[in-house]
Amino acid sequence: MPAAQTWTTPTKIVPPQIAGAHLAVTYERGQEIYAQGGSADKCYRVSAGAVRVCRILPNGGRQVVSFHVAGEMFGFEAGSQHRYFAEALALTRIVAFEHGLAQQRHLPELFALALEAMERAQEHLLLIGRQSAIERVATFLLDLCERLGGTRQFRLAMSRQDIADYLALTIETVSRAMSELKEQSIISLRHARMVDIRKPDALRSLCGHVVGLS
């Protein structure tokens, strides 16, 4: 069984796949990477750690629209301003690329990454459209497992509130779903954020699709 994956420190450094990095910066937990309404003149790649991308709603609430882990890119915008804001979930290292320079030199790579981000956004829309809260939580955990390389043990960088805001649930509903999965011995929780997937097939059956977990 693979060792537990953690996002609390940048122990896994993923070098930039796109040459011509503009800037490499390390952000503390909770530090803003870019602001909602700020200039969208860069795109970003996570080298280590994790990022949440959010939007402030007209009623003052917050919607988490995506999480990004090491090796993933974010910050793509169709316009000149960011419609969302991004924050580090843990000590996180980010590599930033100027849009113009990156587009001129690496259009195929950026196009592939943009398609990947679009596909993930579409999957998220399907996820929050599910009727069952436990289905949403199960799919969320399997997705993280896949994106962290298939490890069945990992520490969540995000809080229960982050997960609730991402899945369009209440924090109480997320906690109940996690407890139900634990009671069924599908997962174990060493503490609130340390997850061990004990029965991956049972977890898959709650999702209605298969991800890359061996």
Give the low-pLDDT segments. 1-16, 210-214
Q: Over all CA atoms, what is the radius of gyration?
A: 17 Å
Enumerate the strands of the largest sheet in spatial order, edge to edge or round the barrel.
1-8-3-6
Arithmetic mean of pLDDT: 82
Along the chain, the helix and strand elements come as EEEEEEEEHHEHHEEH
| 3D shape | globular
Distance between the amino and carboxyl termini = 10 Å
Beta fraction of the residues?
A: 25-35%
Multimeric status of the protein? single chain
Share of helical residues:
25-40%
Largest sheet entry: 4 strands, antiparallel
How many DSSP-defined strands?
Answer: 11
- Helical element count? 5
Helix/strand/pairing class, anyone?
alpha+beta
Commentary on this structure:
There is one protein chain. The protein is of the alpha+beta class and 214 residues long. It contains 5 helices and 11 strands, in the order ββββββββααβααββα. It has helices at residues 99-128, 133-147, 160-167, 171-183, 200-207; strands at residues 23-27, 32-34, 42-48, 50-56, 62-69, 73-74, 85-88, 92-98, 153-155, 187-191, 194-197. It has a 4-stranded antiparallel β-sheet with strand order 1-8-3-6, covered by helices on one side. Strands 2-7-4-5 form a 4-stranded antiparallel β-sheet. It has a 3-stranded antiparallel β-sheet with strand order 9-11-10. A hairpin with a 5-residue loop joins strand 4 (50-56) and strand 5 (62-69). The protein is globular.
